[in-house]
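Batch manifest, entry 17 of 40.
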Amino acid sequence: MTAVSDLLVVAAAAALLVSAVVWIARLPLFPIHEVLVTNELHEVRRSDLEETLSGRLRGNFFSVNLEGIRQAVEQLPWVRTAEARRQWPSRIEISIEEHQPVAYWGDSTGQLVNSHGEVFTAAMTVPPPVPIPMLFGPNELTLDMLGYYQRAADLIKPLGRVPLALTISPRLAVQMKLDDGMVVELGREQPKAPVRERLMRFVEFYPNVLTAARQRPTVVDMRYPNGFALRVAAAPVIESKGKP
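Output type: structure tokens
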């Protein structure tokens, strides 16, 4: 009986302590005086952040909903991840990881690909300092396409050319468009003829392609086992009308 009585006393004391803590936490004694973003922001606008937080700072230092703040901040277009934490005695600190755009995605306005291969929707306020490519393909292949693009850019760099667009069709055929407008058809990945080998062959024969063609080809088809095919733009038809 004595042990049970002692246990009840301890439980009652613990309940009173919890109630006291909850009561104190709800008192307006610990107001939030400052919200600090701990890292530099490039695309997230301060006005958007302030508007998002304006309705989320209810309560005091102890009762404010940090998870609600995190979720709200992550809804902003340029925010990839966010974290909110308390800093005694009256500050809330927020750290934000912004999306780092490395490519445009498809024909949809405002869709971009970040450095993690994730598609997100946001409007770029200023053009990127370095032109970024356009990627077209299945959504589940964005990370693979970034790898394809980087390898292709490295391979054709000696030519002084830069790939502006990379397309992977639903049948997984690869097509690349260069900054001079030339389209390179590379086809599907095959064990006996990898896409990388076809691209290396294009780099090897690129000077000959320009020399052999009477005019600059618009399409170079590298899908042949031991060669390539060229397609040139149709010559414009000039109609001459003389006097009757």
